[in-house]
Amino acid sequence: MSPAPTPVVSPELRGLLRRLKLGKTLQTLPERLALAKQHQLDHAAFLELVLADEADRRDRTGAARRARTAGLDPTMTLEAWDAHDAVTYDHHVLSELATLRFVDHHQCAFILGPVGVGKTHLAHALGHIACRRRYRVHAERSDRLFKRLKAARLDNSHEHELRRLISVDLLILDDFALHTLDATATGDFYEIAVERHLTGSTLLTSNREPPEWLAHLADPQLAQSALDRLQSAAYELVIEGDSYRRRQKPTLHNNRDR
What we know:
Blueprint: H1 11-19, H2 29-39, H3 43-70, E1 87-88, H4 91-98, H5 101-104, E2 108-112, H6 119-132, E3 137-141, H7 142-152, H8 158-167, E4 170-174, H9 183-196, E5 201-206, H10 210-213, H11 220-231, E6 234-238, E7 240-241, H12 244-247
Parallel strand pairs: 2-5, 2-6, 3-4, 4-5
Antiparallel strand pairs: 1-7
Helix pairs in contact: 2-3, 3-6, 7-8, 7-9, 8-9, 9-11
């Protein structure tokens, strides 16, 4: 028995779909027409199927666009997270963070641990989840962000940049306190922490414990005020173990003829 011919989409229907900005449905429409005929779907069920395809496509496209705008690494998703046996962490805390309830409630999160255990990966993974849920996200390495804010003072765009960082739903600052912040950067950090308190969520990754952060901020009073706000309602996910970079180091194999 020969297979049923692939349904043909008429030029008129193609034109109408493009006028309605539904041209992407043409990629799957022949398959959906064949499925509708095979399962004898009524008109409403067929329309629901086609529109569901388009809604899913737009959701994926929108999430990818928001992730690019946020500065997220496209490879660092939760699906791609592979902790191996070399690292340990509280799975319950990670599961809780992945619900994004901390973003809903304008709370903060710290992902802590030594270099190379995957802190940045998990932070970006949570950012991707937030983008899929239509949250506004910005992710940036801390030293680059504060250098950029300092440079923004030269062209009078500092206030605009600061407002943009304050307004996002989830702000991810990677490698926080890796370098000492000078007075200008500490002031910017204070402004961000104070203005975002109870209005947005901030996620920090660091290879230092929070009590050590004070020693790496120039103004102790501003630093303490900012950190008190961040820590007042913050989840802590501590990752312990060996650096994945060391685990990926090639080893020499002794290939002897036997």
